[in-house]
Amino acid sequence: MSNESHCNMPTEPDYTGVEIVEISPETPLNDYLQAMDLAKDEAAKHYEDAMLLAWYDKDRDFESPQHASECHVNSAIPGYIDYALYHGATLKIDIEQGRFIFFYLSIDF
């Protein structure tokens, strides 16, 4: 009997249909609150109305939804990313090369 996994777990997220915006301010942000404000402003440039689906704060190693990564311990894809993509995220805002990441869904009607 083989110990090989027959599960086809992806090693990279599938960002098909997701616009990715990378922001690198000249002056590093002080904290998550500044990053949140910057992400909200950026999302407003893309959508009239947007819903924040998931986010990650590397400084505090904190994610939302909370504990989403607990079931992804051996996965290459963090839980907050899987959650966002599974729930239809269409915009990823990456601030300071992964220091803060925000996923949004357009709710424009």
UniProtKB/TrEMBL annotation:
Highest taxon of source: Bacteria
Q: Where does the record place the DUF5619 domain?
A: 19-104
- Entries under InterPro entries matching the protein: DUF5619
Q: A Pfam family matched by this chain, by name?
A: DUF5619
Name of the featured protein: DUF5619 domain-containing protein
Q: Which organism is it from?
A: endosymbiont of Galathealinum brachiosum
